[in-house]
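Page 42, continued from yesterday. The earlier attempt failed because a stray header line got pasted into the input along with the sequence. Redoing it now with the clean sequence only.
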Amino acid sequence: MDARGETHPEATAEGRALATFACLWASATVFHLASYDQWALTPGHFALLVAAGGVLARPAAPRRLLVLAALQVFEVLVMSPQVSNHWLFTGFVNLTWIVVFVGSAVARRRWDAPAGELYRQFAPLARLELLILYLFVVLHKLNWDFFDPEVSCGARFYFAQAERFGVLPRSPGLALACAWLTIVTEATIPLLLVFPRTRLGGVILGAVFHWLIGLNPISGFYNFSSMLLAVFVLFAPASFLAEALRRLGDALAGRGARPFAGLSFAARGVLAAALTAGALGLLGLLMMTYRGDRDFFVLLWGVYGGGLTFALGAAAWRGRGRFVPEARALAPPRPALWAFPALVFLNGLSPYLGLKTETAFAMYSNLRTEGGRTNHLFIPTATQVFGFQRDVVEVLESSDPDLARLGERGEVLPWLAFRELTSRRPRASVVFVRGGRVERARRISARPELALSPPWWSRKLLPFRAVPKTGPQPCEH
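This time it went through. Structure tokens are written below.
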């Protein structure tokens, strides 16, 4: 009990669960910065790194998580639309945390709401948002091109993994089977998470699957996997997380764990944070001085993700049948808070409504919905109530290399995105086809509709990509 007679957050299972999430969430921020090598690219990135370190040093302090969340949301707003899918989803979760924290603080008229209370309000929302993310990750992949071994992202990922681990065979049939396995696994994880009796199995399966995904050499997928791992733990019973952390500490320290047995939860958190920060610092120095193409943080992810996955699995095996699932794990305490899962749902639904095609959780899915044609198995273009995707432009020639390259590659681009490109090239000439008509501009600045950039809100909220005019949709982000 503290001076006000309240139970300290560390003395409650829910407080420990929130502190565990905070540790993993801050670590995910560091992995994100590592994947793009953005340690101090801007003052904002450096501030994120410092804030993440503050959370790792004291994970049981919810206000530190608030600072980290606010900085990340601010970066998303500033950098948008040039943000990745996982960073945008991270922004949704952080925005949820900010509103929950501020709402609780206003209701209590002080900025130190109990961690258990914050956990009970925040965790159901973050869980729902993860389930919605998975819904669209699976739905977007249900298209003809994802099951075409010539262009499938599932096949591309497998071949990249086979290149890194030479023992894996490289047959097209196995690559196609890998695409099917990806769909089945990504559909199974949320199904297991929904039902109380299978929820812990979903956490373990999700941790194993995304630990493996994080090792893929195509991109720094450990940024996405580390973020998901943090949200996965919110599905586990709070008492289970304490057991998992104890198992992890014992497994890492072996017989040397005995001297640490008497440490409090906070002391163990600080010790783990110090070791993690030290490892990250050493790897950061290596990355700054190494000029090759090897990503040292993949090795760190292998240890970090593998260790946590092992701890979760060991705790689940030893405590099977002993941990009681949370009764209302997917029920936000206040109806108004449903607005945040609804925002995540709307973001994922965007391609089928005729809205944006970038940052709509369709990463590496082969999905195509632009230009009045779709490759989805069962969702037609008739669902597009907005016309942004139907209004596409084909560049025939241009004096600007970037615009000319669109024509050379046989790609079309939605009108809004085309205007964004032309507005930054006022002196260039361009010949393009729009709505079946050939149009010419000897100088873009002489055509106001080409020279003026689209409204700021469309640039922020409606990012689009170029897609092939004909043929299958290749594997792209």
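Notes: The CA atoms of residues 212 and 302 lie 8 Å apart.
Reminder to self: strip header lines before submitting.
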